[in-house]
């Protein structure tokens, strides 16, 4: 019997795993049942992490187990890939059975129109040369309190209609009332033309059809004078619009105007930029720019992560969560930033500045809470090569403690510490390091670690130093 393999750059959440399994069962005529709360368990053998997580308390009829592995995209990467096969997927394999590719966001239309719809759009275009027949999904995973249903913004309607036109299945947002795929190119152009224009001074996104080509305006440079390609929402929007234009049958040129990109920048990148890759995929031109010759896409769409600091702090996060601790806040490298969870369970979006409005609010990679001992652990994740930077950074956590942790959690005991990934140390490399994960999976824990940490790793064979 095959297994389900979920590959992701994100810290996997039980609620999202359940949603993905339900989506899989619905679309692939399978069934699943839960035997309790879903838990994600790191596989640790004789003190060595196997770089695999197993999902517990959910049984899928046609799969033996559900496994999770951490990967990284070579460029623009969707959040989750679901494979169905006996063995773990192989980097670059053409025979692996990828059945679903999912982008997940907790950003609502109220929070950010551009981020929620446009910013991630380029990902659905970039995957197509690598996996042509995979089913694509946009998963909205709203964590905040339910809001009163109202008509979505025209930006949300336009972007969602494009996703539907491109064959993306939208989950977690009711698409039965306000949304529908565009039936032809003129309908797409007319809808965009009726949308509200941005404030004076901003470059509007417009679509103009001529006999020989279509022009789509939109600024790609950020800041406006940089000459680069750095405006992520517009990169997504222009990618989605251009892909939709192709999907609706347009074979002639697509030209991006008012983009702000310089020839020098294009020459310097030599075409190795995620939007320039998409230009190659879709046959897009930038007005008054000599486009680079056909540039080969990166050989791999994804590879197993073997260098990021998050390998250690995500492992620490999931192992302690499995044993009853919970996460107060998370901001793992390369992952979606979480909310601050108060002791009463309220979710709070943390600002970028502290209460003064002038100083940055320094944030750990993960904040863990053990209710039984009333103990909070602030963890800064680093690689072995950046250990000293992590030691310095944990000195900057006064604001999050004074402004958020103590007001919510009261007279809690707090530990500031560092988790480290990489290398092959035989001992804890610094007294401030709580948790060390070597390249080969060896785990070493500081012998002065609080009891809640030692309890979480009991009977796993890890070393203490």
SS-derived structural category = alpha/beta
Determine and state the CATH class of the largest domain.
Alpha Beta
Helix percent band: 25-40%
Under CATH, the topology of the largest domain can be stated as Rossmann fold
Question: How many β-strand stretches?
Answer: 22
Number of domains: 3
Distance between the termini: 42 Å
Query: What is the 3D form?
Result: globular
Specify the CATH architecture of the largest domain. Answer: 3-Layer(aba) Sandwich
Strand content is 25-35%
Averaged pLDDT: 93
Biggest pleated sheet: 9 strands, mixed
Count helical runs.
Answer: 12
Rg (CA only) = 24 Å
Spans where pLDDT lies below 50 across 5 or more residues: none
Task: Describe the protein's architecture and organization.
The structure is a single chain. This protein is of the alpha/beta class and 465 residues long. It has 3 domains: 3-171, Rossmann fold; 185-286, Transcription Regulator spoIIAA (2-Layer Sandwich); 306-464, no CATH class. The chain is built from 12 helices and 22 strands. It has helices spanning 14-27, 113-118, 121-126, 154-165, 185-194, 232-247, 263-269, 274-282, 310-322, 387-393, 398-409, 451-456; strands at 3-8, 32-45, 48-60, 66-73, 80-85, 98-105, 135-140, 169-171, 207-209, 213-217, 253-257, 284-286, 302-304, 326-330, 340-341, 347-348, 366-370, 375-383, 413-421, 433-437, 443-445, 463-464. The strands form 4 sheets. Strands 1, 2, 3, 4, 5, 6, 7, 8 and 13 form a 9-stranded mixed β-sheet that branches. It has a 7-stranded mixed β-sheet with strand order 14-17-18-19-20-21-22. Strands 9-10-11-12 form a 4-stranded mixed β-sheet. Helix 12 (451-456) links the parallel strand 21 and strand 22 (463-464). Helix 4 packs across helix 6 (232-247). It starts with a strand and ends with a strand.
